């Protein structure tokens, strides 16, 4: 079952009664997009960085976030509100859809993590069609939710049939250049298993190739690389330790401060004050 909550005050937008909502399975809370999802921004704005490219979204933007990409989100509220519609297009749903609606699936040659969709009458009307379900504490059963997801996907593919190559590519990531990928994405706080998967390797192959490429094991290299990046941001750019530790892939400020001082002989605060 999928539950929709009540918003006390209508939004001052074209869609008046929809609050932040999610349709379909929940997406991963990691900095890893585990399933494709559709995003429509209602209130506030958002910047996204995928290790290579920056994206900016404002109210009224429609986009597809692509699975098997690493991203970091920065959300900006408008008058205390950040509201969006997220509709997950997970693999089981997509496989069922493809069985019902065969599409020609050709290779998609863009590497972008986020694909923006042009507004059309169909997609605009689709967003408005969701509005009645947000006027009270209503519950949609899963069968009805899938109908709305199917409708959305049909609209997107009608607008751009080439996106079939994105949605219906069910293969694992291909083996890629390990050094280039890790040097671009070391700041992302994900498991070694994720890094292995995203570089097209088993965990054992990832560790072996990593040792050959960097002359170090992944855990030691990641810690050192993240600390060096933190040192640069604090000492050269004047960034506060509290603003840096998450940015470079640490989860806890006190742990970051401990390993930083162990590595450099001074605490992050001492380096900032030098």
UniProtKB/TrEMBL annotation:
Alphabetical list of SUPFAM superfamilies matching this protein: Homeodomain-like (SSF46689), Regulatory protein AraC (SSF51215)
Q: Does the keyword Transcription apply?
A: yes
Show the GO MF annotations. DNA-binding transcription factor activity; sequence-specific DNA binding
Asked if the keyword Ribonucleoprotein belongs to this entry, the reply reads no
Its protein name is Helix-turn-helix domain-containing protein
> Which PANTHER family does its entry note?
HTH-TYPE TRANSCRIPTIONAL ACTIVATOR RHAS-RELATED
In terms of PROSITE patterns, this protein maps to: HTH_ARAC_FAMILY_2 (PS01124)
Residue ranges of domain HTH araC/xylS-type in the record: 176-274
């Amino acid at each position: 079952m999928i539950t929709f909550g009540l918003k006390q005050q209508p939004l001052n937008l074209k869609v008046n009664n929809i609050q932040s909502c999610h349709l379909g399975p929940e997406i991963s809370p990691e900095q890893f997009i585990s399933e494709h999802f559709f995003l429509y921004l209602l209130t506030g704005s958002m910047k996204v960085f995928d290790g290579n490219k920056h994206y900016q979204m404002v109210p009224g933007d429609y986009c597809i976030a692509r699975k098997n990409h690493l991203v970091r989100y920065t959300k900006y509220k408008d008058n205390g509100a950040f509201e969006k519609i997220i509709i997950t297009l997970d693999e089981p749903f997509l496989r069922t859809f493809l069985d019902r609606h065969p599409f020609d699936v050709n290779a998609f040659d863009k590497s972008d993590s986020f694909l923006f969709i042009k507004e059309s009458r169909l997609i605009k009307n689709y967003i408005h069609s969701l509005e009645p379900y947000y006027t009270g504490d209503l519950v949609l059963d899963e069968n009805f939710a899938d109908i709305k997801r199917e409708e959305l996907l049909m609209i997107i593919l009608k607008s751009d049939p080439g996106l079939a190559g994105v949605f219906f590519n069910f293969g694992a990531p291909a083996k890629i250049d390990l050094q280039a990928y890790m040097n671009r994405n070391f700041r992302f706080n994900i498991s070694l298993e994720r890094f292995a998967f995203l570089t097209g390797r088993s965990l054992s192959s990832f560790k072996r190739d990593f040792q050959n490429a960097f002359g170090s094991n992944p855990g030691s290299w990641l810690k050192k690389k993240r600390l060096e990046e933190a040192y640069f941001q604090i000492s050269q750019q004047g960034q506060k330790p509290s603003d840096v530790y998450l940015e470079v892939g640490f989860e806890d400020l006190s742990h970051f401060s401990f390993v930083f001082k162990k590595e450099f002989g001074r605490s992050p605060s001492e380096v900032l004050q030098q």
